[in-house]
Specification:
Layout (H helix, E strand, L loop, with lengths): L2 E2 L1 H4 L4 H4 L6 H8 L10 E5 L4 E3 L7 E5 L3 E7 L5 E7 L7 H4 L8 E6 L1 E7 H6 L8
Parallel strand pairs: 1-2
Antiparallel strand pairs: 2-8, 3-7, 4-8, 5-6, 5-7
Length: 134
């Protein structure tokens, strides 16, 4: 079962992003996984300029964008930043968690508003192979 945030449910654009298969990586994972491991998957609305991750902060959720765009920014000592990656419906924000990390060295900011599915890190960390069929 997929949970939909109440705020998102009221949005007319939700219908556009309501299918998790709109994210190519999530579609592939869902196709080849145990469906029970996604009971905590939730559709959330992300607004332009929202800071999803801050450099050095713990990661609480991984995100699978459906129709939004997220930029990863390298924040320098001077406070200036440089865009180092862009994540859209082909990928996932939070790959650091899958690789064994618990925080990020980059800032993640929404560059184009829209929707994404998010999954708590606890699900990814405690069941790293649940995404594969038994």
């Amino acid at each position: 079962m997929i949970v939909v945030d109440e705020r998102v449910a009221k949005s007319s654009q939700m219908l556009i992003a309501a299918d998790p298969k709109q994210n190519q990586l999530l579609a592939a994972i869902l196709k080849n996984s145990n469906p029970g491991c996604f009971s905590k998957l939730a559709l959330v609305e992300l607004m332009l300029g929202d800071a999803i991750y801050e450099s050095g902060q713990p990661i609480e959720f991984v995100y699978f964008p459906t129709n939004c765009i997220i930029s990863l920014l390298n924040v320098m000592i001077s406070g200036q930043s440089a865009e180092i990656a862009v994540i859209g419906n082909e990928g996932m924000l939070g790959v650091t968690v899958v690789m064994g990390g618990d925080s990020t060295t980059n800032r993640a900011v929404v560059q184009s508003k829209g929707f994404a599915y998010r999954l708590p890190v606890a699900v990814v960390v405690t069941r790293p192979f649940a995404w594969q069929r038994a």
